[in-house]
Amino acid sequence: MKMLVIGDEARTRTYLPDMPFVHSCELAIAPRGASDDDILKIGADADFVMADAISPVSRYLMERMPNLKLVHSEGVAFNAIDVKAAHELGIYVCNNAGVNAGAVAEQTILLMLACLRDAMAADAAVRAGTQIQTKERMMVEGIRELGDCRVGFIGFGAIAQATARRLGAWGCEMLYNKRHPLDAEGEAELGARFASIDEITRTCDIVSVHVPVTDETRGLVDTAFLSRMQPNAVLINTARGEIVNNAALADALERGVIGMAGLDTIAPEPVQLDNPLLNLSDAAARKLVLSPHIGGVTQGMFNRAHRMVWENAARVAAGETPVNIVS
After folding, report:
1. Per the residue annotation, which of 72, 210, 293, 306 is the catalytic one?
2. Is 187 a catalytic site residue?
3. What pLDDT is stored for residue 76 in this prediction?
4. What is the CA radius of gyration of the chain?
5. I need a surface site. Which of 59, 103, 244, 274 has the fewest CB within 10 A?
6. pLDDT in tens, 139-187
7. What is the phi/psi pair of residue 319, to 5°?
8. Does residue 269 carry a catalytic annotation?
9. Is residue 240 annotated as part of the catalytic site, yes or no?
10. How far is 114 from 244, CA to CA, in rounded Å?
11. How many angstroms separate the CA atoms of 221 and 245, rounded?
12. Rounded CA gap, 327 and 325, in Å?
């Protein structure tokens, strides 16, 4: 059996689980960004593929891998995998649903607090020797406590629910929107109530995005969405960059349509210097807190995720059905 990894070799070897099945498999690694033809030179005979979440796995590639039985996302996202082609070719596609929920929840709350406390500007002020002036300004402008905020979740899967559980300790009022609302017991457990996207955008102090990338959600956070938000509201995105229209958000920050934004991910990735969100005026740039898509990339997450990939490969090799099937 052979596992082909499309991604980073150092990361792959760092998190290689100590399992008998792993030791029995041949391991081939193609770097992220390699062409399909170069990938085929490395692992055309592979039985399994583990792909970095932003590495495409195309129909062309799968059609030329006669032994391929499983394509597994290294993370949660699988929009770069041609799921339709895999289905037609009889190849399982799986992801690591929920494996990064706690890690991304922590990053979500970090960005919420960084925005509410104006952490980037505050850090710069202390380093510039204007600590007292900045403290006086912030006291006059007012610092909102997280516990005083109404938080709205657009999407309410594993990550959003993990965030809600943690925010419960702050005493936040929480609203959520998802395709199929929770039952009363589930809402009571998480301390959140179902609401329309319109109500969330109009009434919440913090709007946190947690939906996957689909034709329906791509560009969901656009000019109309942002214009419904309160002028001092905070937008948080720890989901996927494609959900936010970059130009619309840049314009909203420039014009003061919303208060601040905290983003762990911006599309396209890798982020290019000509992205409108990296070319804001100084005043607007102060309203934007960025992190380099690290919400889910903790040591614990990678240990869990890589073990799940190899366990699923072992299941398929044994003629069993894998878990977390998306196709």
Report:
1. 293
2. no
3. 86
4. 22
5. 274
6. 999 999 999 999 999 999 999 999 999 999 999 999 999 999 999 999 9
7. 80, 15
8. yes
9. yes
10. 20
11. 6
12. 6
Q: Tokens at residue 261, please? A: 């934004």
Residue stretches of the chain with pLDDT short of 70: none
Tokens of 137: 């300004």
Residue 160 burial (10 A CB sphere; 0-12, 13-18, 19+): buried
Q: CA 137, CA 120: separation in Å to the nearest integer?
A: 15
Per the residue annotation, which of 106, 189, 254, 269 is the catalytic one? 269
Model pLDDT for residues 178-230, shown as the tens digit of each residue: 999 999 999 999 999 999 999 999 999 999 999 999 999 999 999 999 999 99
For 210, counting Cβ atoms within 10 Å of its Cβ (0-12 exposed, 13-18 middle, 19+ buried), the class is: buried
Please state whether the peptide bond connecting residue 322 to the residue before it is cis, i.e. omega within 30 degrees of 0. no
Of 240, 304, 306, 307, the catalytic one is: 240
3-state secondary structure labels for all residues of the chain: CEEEEECCHHHHHHCCCCCHHHHHCEEEEECCCCCHHHHHHHHCCCCEEEECCCCCECHHHHHCCCCCCEEEECCCCCCCECHHHHHHHCCEEECCCCCCHHHHHHHHHHHHHHHHCCHHHHHHHHHCCCHHHHHHHHHHHCCCCHHHCEEEEECCCHHHHHHHHHHHHHCCEEEEECCCCCCHHHHHHHCEEECCHHHHHHHCCEEEECCCCCCCCCCCECHHHHHHCCCCCEEEECCCHHHECHHHHHHHHHHCCCCEEEECCCCCCCCCCCCHHHCCCHHHHCCEEECCCCCCCCHHHHHHHHHHHHHHHHHHHCCCCCCCECC
The gap from C-alpha 124 to its chain's centroid, in whole angstroms, comes to 27
